[in-house]
Amino acid sequence: MIRVLIADDEDMIRTALAALLALEDDIEIVAECRDGESAVERALEFRPDVCLLDLEMPGIDGVEAASRIRQRIPARCVVVTRHARPGVLRRALSAGVDGFIPKSRRAEDVAAVIRDVAAGRRYVDPEIAADALSDERCPLTDRELDVLRAGARGETIAEIAASLHLSPGTVRNHVSSVLGKLGLATRQQATITARERGWI
């Protein structure tokens, strides 16, 4: 049996998918979670073979949850998303995610991906992969992206600096660099742009 954890903050989608996957002879649903933090906790508790993680959840997103899970246990992780942006795919793959599929796929397709990933293979939806190849590369450095992520909820420069263990002056320099590269006037605009392009 392939032991699966499902994390999605939309109750109807999560419970429906769990019910449909439970009909498969070789899949057992061992945990259902509403957010990324609880997905990490339950993964450590139940040690599933595969974690099926929604990209956009409260708190930490599916990619960050996958990264934390993989650091602690050998579970395979599949990210499911309604908005399959190429930048997010690149971030997911760099975090060690094993599968990436849109929510528009049928439950049978999701089951097939779970089997592939459990067998040690990787799966990326072909349309998402094609979009990623043609999409522009992110011009921002990893540290600049960290600054945008840390300030995504409107945190002050001082709060961002504290969370990243940087000086406020260094954070201001990174913000200035981001705005210059993107040709934007505010950090809020930069965060919106980075989200829309799937960079954060």
Automatic annotation (TrEMBL):
Residues 133-198 form the HTH luxR-type domain. The modification 4-aspartylphosphate is found at residue 54. The keyword Glycosyltransferase does not apply. Keywords: DNA-binding, Phosphoprotein. Residues 3-118 form the Response regulatory domain. It holds the Pfam family Response_reg. This is Response regulator transcription factor. The lineage of its organism: Bacteria, Bacillati, Actinomycetota, Actinomycetes, Micrococcales.
